[in-house]
Amino acid sequence: MLSTPRILAIATPVVAITVAITASLTVFFTTQATATVTSDKVSAERIQLIQQNIDSLHPDASSELKQQILEIAVKAIENQIFVEGGSFMMGDFGMKCESDRYAPTWEEGTDCYATHTLDDKPAHKVTLTSYSLSKYETSLYEKERYHLALGLPQPLEKRRKKKPDHWSVQPNVAAGTGGWQEAKDQCLWLGKLTGYAFDLPTEAQWEFAARNRGHKVFYATNDGTIKLNKNTPDDQVFPIDSFPPNPLGFHHLQSNSSEWVNDWFDDKYYQNSPEHDPQGPTKPPVVELINKDPGHFRVLRGGNIRWDPTVTTNRIPTPHILSVSYSSRTGFRCAIQSPKPIY
């Protein structure tokens, strides 16, 4: 903390910025309106860089939209939780036979598994480098501003006009997607704005965070159990900051929306996965699934409000382009692929 404020005057072709550094950071835009960004984590230099990148990437955006993008970018940095790397046994590590469905337990030498599928077996050693991951899923508000910035159609526009009070169109609920690429592109866009290596998390990173750095945790809730409408949603998508987080501080890794990860799906990948920082198949294999045409699939992780409780090891092969766009079942959160804390 600086004992006396330091004033920086920064001029850009679009706006003039004055930054006052105290315990927090305030940015004033002297355009049609005065707006404020405060942060005790993001430096003045980083905020200046973000503003310059916004002006470069979106020169025709309104001052209001630029301000909203700046706020989103700063929050995206602030919301990152640093996850120290380590080793764990990724995949279905077994479940005590005849366990309580909502509060299962594990015991050494169990003959039972947590899932009926083969693609999350065998459990195999994975060692991860440290990384950061957003404590929240991406919100509908953030997705809408991303679409505005890039001139893309607004998600759920027809529903919003017909049912403006419906829970699925409220700004702080988890955003659905039109497919994997959309989620990937929005994370990369944050990287272009901030200068940090934003991207989707890998499947291994997602599971490591959901299992509290690889512990034998079945559900990614505050206590590893399912208590409907107390620690996980039941029949609707809730605001991204609702319900208690898991012990690492992540909200809704268990439910709300299932989340895209970076990996292609291969039902045999766990049989030959590399130990160190697995990235998934380098090329998408053609996979044959029950009741689906053979094809290429990406991976969704975590449960959602349409499905029964989904254990942390469960993998969901999903077409990378969705037939039903912006369903609340398919959300995402962004990671920063850096081995060092960003603040």
Task: Describe what you observe in this structure.
By secondary structure, the chain is of the alpha+beta class. The chain has two domains: 1-78, no CATH class; 79-343, paralog of FGE (formylglycine-generating enzyme), CATH 3.90.1580. Helix content is 20%, strand content 17%. The strands form four sheets. It has a four-stranded antiparallel sheet with strand order 4-7-13-8. The chain has a four-stranded mixed sheet with strand order 11-10-9-12. Strands 1-2-3 form a three-stranded antiparallel sheet, covered by helices on one side. Helix 2 (63-78) crosses helix 3. The relative contact order is 0.16.
Q: Count of helices?
A: 6
Question: What is the average per-residue confidence, as pLDDT, rounded to a whole number?
Answer: 88
Helical amount: 10-25%
CATH superfamily of the largest domain: paralog of FGE (formylglycine-generating enzyme)
Described by the principal axes of the CA atoms, the overall outline is globular
Oligomer: single chain
Give the end-to-end Cα distance, rounded to a whole number of Å.
14 Å
How many strand elements?
13
What composes the largest sheet? 4 strands, antiparallel
Strand order of the largest sheet: 4-7-13-8
CATH class of the largest domain: Alpha Beta
Indicate the CATH topology of the largest domain.
paralog of FGE (formylglycine-generating enzyme)
Class computed from helices, strands and strand pairing: alpha+beta
| Rg measurement, Å | 21 Å
State which percent range the strand residues make up: 15-25%
Order of helix and strand elements from N to C terminus: EEEHHEEEEHHHEHEEEEE
